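Hey, quick one: can you model this chain's 3D structure?
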Amino acid sequence: MASITIYHNPACGTSRNTLALIRNSGAEPEVIEYLKTPPGKERLQQLLAAMGIPARELLRQKGTPCDDLQLGDPKWTDDELVDFMVQHPILMNRPVVVTPLGARLCRPSERVLDILSSPQQGAFTKEDGEVVINAEGQRV
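Sure thing. Here's the predicted structure for all 140 residues.
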């Protein structure tokens, strides 16, 4: 079975939904609770390169010291923003999923469907009641 890794925060509904969608495809991913086991600078840079996004797009503002640190200021380089995420892992938005088909920041959670090689095995409803996958395993 193909290797899948999710950088996960179990307190986040989007992250929980993403993990459930991965499991609904029949896969059991490597789950990295990034607040307990944060990725280092090199790994964060690899993830950003694999996702093809600048560091600012991975920066989480809500519930973080982002505003206190004035990270919205465009003066910060990608390298500096990555350093802040290493120092304060809560600044990393989630969930990030890596599969053989690519890497994505899965917000919304159904973005993970684009990088899963196996189809959904049944219906899936997000925690908020939104139906994402119908009974035939097809995206709604």
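One thing worth noting: The domain at 5-133 is CATH 3.40.30.10 (Glutaredoxin).
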